[in-house]
Amino acid sequence: MDYQNRAGSKFGGGGVASQSATNADRRERLRKLALETIDLDKDPYFFKNHVGSFECRLCLTVHQNDGSYLAHTQGRKHQTNLARRAAKDAQLGRRNQEEGYTGANAIQIRKNVVKIGRPGYKITKTRDPITRHQGLLFQLQYPEIAPNVVPRVRFMSAYEQKVEDPPDKAYQYLLIAAEPYETCAFKLQAREVDRREERYWTWFDGDSKEFWVQITFKTEREERYSGVPGLGGSGVRR
User: Fold this and answer.
1) Which fold has domain 120-219?
2) How many whole angstroms separate alpha carbon 37 and alpha carbon 29?
3) Which of 31, 33, 117, 196 has the most neighbouring CB atoms within 10 Å?
4) Confidence of residue 235 (pLDDT cuts 50, 70, 90)
5) Cα angle, residue 142 at apex, residues 203 and 180 outer, rounded to 5°
6) Where is this region: Disordered (predicted)?
């Protein structure tokens, strides 16, 4: 940054930088520092949405360019959230180990359990006629499910799975597990899921041995402004 040729200052005297100039210089230094340490292709929290903006899925922020995102990763908010996420994962790992859970899915695995194959399933596309929310309805049949076992659901990012290499960050995976059946994984678009109770729910019918999972994706407006306070909206088009 040129400090000495600023209007009103003597040559060689430097001059006082304005607040905006200081912030711009700080962001540029943070961006250069991040470029040396971060590979965006391997960053699990980096996501480019359908309008060309960049999102941080850890902090739920939206950035207009990759430089802004890189500067954000060096900031206090992102670093604090990274530390909280690491502490939470460590705590969850210890609890799962104490309770006898293993694996990335945190599903209880008993020794000498013989898998009997995959359950039958049906997938139906859904769309709310009023809000235009798109979603999927999963129906899985578990006629030989173990007693007192309820299927469990987990979302997995492309970077957590080990089947497809290299991982494609444009997709995510929905995992459903129930003993003694094999775990089913469904490949979905990497769109944000609306976690409100009326949009996302699961239900297991103990009589028919059917398990239902309803997921609803957020609208384009909600995805675009999810990190902007007051602009998320309900997704209703008027």
Assistant:
1) Immunoglobulin-like (2.60.40)
2) 13
3) 31
4) very low
5) 115
6) 1-25
Higher pLDDT, 23 or 12: 23
Among the listed residues 88, 128, 96, 85, the one whose alpha carbon sits nearest the alpha carbon of residue 217:
128
Question: What's the pLDDT score for residue 237?
Answer: 41
> Where do the structural domains in the chain lie, given as residue ranges?
3-74, 79-110, 120-219
Q: Are 104 and 123 in contact (CB under 8 A)?
A: no
CB 184 within 8 A of CB 114: no
Contact of 31 with 67, CB cutoff 8 Å: yes
Element (H, E) at 66: helix 66-73
DSSP 67-134: HHHHHHHTSHHHHHHHHHHHHHHHHHHHHHHHHTEETTTTEE--TTPPP--PPEEEEEEEE-TTT--E
All residues at 6 or more sequence positions from 64 whose CB lies less than 8 Å from its CB, including other chains: 53, 54
Axis crossing angle, helix 66-73 with helix 19-37, rounded to the nearest 10: 80
